[in-house]
Amino acid sequence: MKPAGARAGLSRGPSRGATAISSLAYHKPKPRATLRLFCFPYAGGSALIYREWGAALPVQVEVCPVQLPGRGHRLREAPLQRMQPLAEESARALLPLFDRPFAFFGHSMGALLAFEIARLLRARNVPGPSHLFVSGRQAPQAAETEPPTYDLPEPEFIEELRRLNGTPPEVLAHPELMQVMLPLLRADFEAVQTYAYREEPPLDCPISIYGGVQDEEVSREDLDGWCAQTNAPCTVRLFPGDHFFLNTARDMVLRTLARELHERHLL
Question: Which among 23, 46, 108, 208 is annotated as catalytic?
Answer without folding.
Answer: 108
